[in-house]
Amino acid sequence: MWKKQNPSRRIKASVVKRLLNPRIPVAKKLDLPSINKIHVSTYSKNPYIQERSNLPQSAITKVIKVQALSRRFLVRLRFLKYVKGFHAALIIQSAWRGYSIRKLLGFYKRKKCPDCNRILNMLLPDLRSLRLELHDISQKHEELAVIVSRYEQAFRYLFDQVSKLQKGNKE
């Protein structure tokens, strides 16, 4: 009884496949913005609308059908984007849930051996300082690489200028 009143919110794979492959391939090729500029009411039998738009009734009905097709296609695209985003959110949530449960259970705690903890506590400050030194060295290396590339550009420019002067003297 409860399931009939509250259906599951899980999106079936068959629904996604159906949405990815629309039955009307023409809907993909439609020029949607230009079609949506034509504002026509759904009451196409109204003579006032025919007079106002200067279109025959058959044209108005065709425009309405095309607008419905394009809107349906746009809604399908929006729904697909939502499904993809929802799927990504579910993955992130499950990963975080697994991480938090493992953390609660103590998977990420230090070793239970007191000697191991003592050695680890002795080594941690050195490891942190080493990491900072490595970071500084990598930054200096990047700066040096930039300077070297500038020198190379300057050398190429000078080399080109010298070759132009030599060609000018030969002629």
Radius of gyration: 34 Å
Shape: flat
Low-confidence stretches at least 5 residues in length (pLDDT < 50)? 24-28, 30-36
Mean pLDDT: 67
Count of extended strands: 0
Q: Biggest sheet: strands, sense, closure? A: none
One letter per element, helices H and strands E, the order comes to HHHHHHH
Distance between the termini: 98 Å
Helix fraction, binned, reads over 70%
Helix/strand structural class: mainly alpha
Q: Bin the strand percentage.
A: under 5%
The number of helical elements comes to: 7
What can you tell me about this protein's structure?
It holds the Pfam family IQ. This protein has seven helices and no strands. The protein has a domain at 2-109. It has 171 residues and is mostly helical. The longest helix has 57 residues, at 114-170.
Please summarize what this structure is.
By secondary structure, the protein is mainly alpha-helical.
Question: What topology emerges from the helices and strands here?
Answer:
Layout: H1 2-5, H2 13-20, H3 26-29, H4 32-37, H5 47-53, H6 57-105, H7 114-170
Key traits:
171 residues; 79% helix; flat; mainly alpha; 7 helices; single chain
